[in-house]
Amino acid sequence: MSRLVIPVRGQVLYATGDVTLRAFVTLALKDNVGNFVKRDFRIDSATDVTTFPAYDARQIGLPVPINPSPVRHDPTGLEVRSGLLRFRIHGMDATEYVVSCFFLGNPVVVPNPAMPAFLPRALLQPLALLDHLKFSMEKDPASIGASHGEVIIEKK
Question: Which of 75, 65, 62 is nearest to 120 (CA)?
């Protein structure tokens, strides 16, 4: 049985002093010719669908739909291209997974870094993988390396 333990990262917000907690997983994305390219995704159960920047997808050779959907991504106003993402989870066995994905933005226009609120993000919706994987969260008060807890991904 394949298993991966990911530490939860904490970051203090300068303006308020609050701590944001996030967990990132490295996915090996399968491109048009069958090669795998590693990219970090934030594990985000609050996102409706897995998302990935369309420009980055085109740059690394992922299959991206040519035409955008008639709708726009509500939080950012970016174009949406609905497709599929094929990947392996780095650090686990070689099983390939496929999830639906919104490729956000224009695949031929570089996102403007001066407008961070509108930058597309790589977000993994873990609920789409529950047929194959178990996601759990734990915190061991005695743990030194993961003071904010851990996300555990196990193959069923």
Answer: 75
